Fold each of these.
Amino acid sequence: DAKTTQPTSMDCAEGRAANLPCNHSTISGNEYVYWYRQIHSQGPQYIIHGLKNNETNEMASLIITEDRKSSTLILPHATLRDTAVYYCVHNNDMRFGAGTRLTVKP
Amino acid sequence: NAGVTQTPKFQVLKTGQSMTLQCAQDMNHNSMYWYRQDPGMGLRLIYYSASEGTTDKGEVPNGYNVSRLNKREFSLRLESAAPSQTSVYFCASSEQLSYEQYFGPGTRLTVT
């Protein structure tokens, strides 16, 4: 089983921020948290990763709690094309759980 | 720059038949991976190759073999296909082990 825990599904209104949580309470000190998404049946796509500082790139922001036991992926202005399954992964684990199915609604 | 390519895109096998799934990357990555994804499930790691010349078992290696042919290519072989191996197979690569992975489009395999 994956070492991360994510909600099964979430909805978000188009144009609003989507906040996707992930619990990774067993993460070790040198492990990064990686986020990927899978649109329909395509191959997963890398989004962002972080160790302990918050990170931002052109796709998303990643907020990691101070104790590193959880993180939140933020899509600041969700669009219909962001509808996908989102996975959070420990980089040394290489196990993808079932992820969170995000549905962005008009 | 094609990234990660996989062949074939679709395949139907009869129980007991063998086949090899091909994967190639043009990003000069050291590490490569094979995953399977069953309907409604996450990805499960079958085998990985940290660098050219090395391969290691992942979470679900039974019934599969792999070959890291060179730095670019990593193949997955099913010696005697079983219906339980019906799945979508994804290949991925990364610059180093445990760095961000880049995935291919997948091979949809049905074993009847």
Amino acid sequence: AQSVTQLDSQVPVFEEAPVELRCNYSSSVSVYLFWYVQYPNQGLQLLLKYLSGSTLVKGINGFEAEFNKSQTSFHLRKPSVHISDTAEYFCAHSPQGGSEKLVFGKGTKLTVNP
Amino acid sequence: DAGVIQSPRHEVTEMGQEVTLRCKPISGHDYLFWYRQTMMRGLELLIYFNNNVPIDDSGMPEDRFSAKMPNASFSTLKIQPSEPRDSAVYFCASSSLLDSPLHFGNGTRLTVT
């Protein structure tokens, strides 16, 4: 079964520090990968997605992710975080590129401290 | 655009009672999804609709759960009878196309005592 694994359930960092949130997927076929963010008491919203093309994907709020097929990874990065980036981040995987079979990871809680 | 609207935001009920969760998708979106979020299992897709027709309900946990979409602007998720293990946050999401991003509502936090 296809799945995504988020290796860290919680990541605390200080403001203005860089951050990397890790995601690995398991699949041997074409993959389509997403990162969603959930702010407290809100629904999820799309940060970025990889469907094809350049392996470095830029998203909203200064986030970017790199698709690495050999390592089956899609890690999310930001060079300098803000307090407002405190949220839960979900990696998701779709075998067909669409929303109908999206499989979400368990999430990584990012806490940015002053 | 008001986004996906869910009601109520919080629901507390006793075991055995019927619970109805409501969702209004974004106007023009043809796909509607119901998800459940728990600490143990994360986000799980329960069911999704295309043009008001249920396409895949394989994620619905059991017969106590049912979902309807009587028209393009309204959907319900019903649990009857409710059980404590149904306690979770239930999200509705919509999208215009299958390859478009999901737009989530703010969720309904259900507590069954």
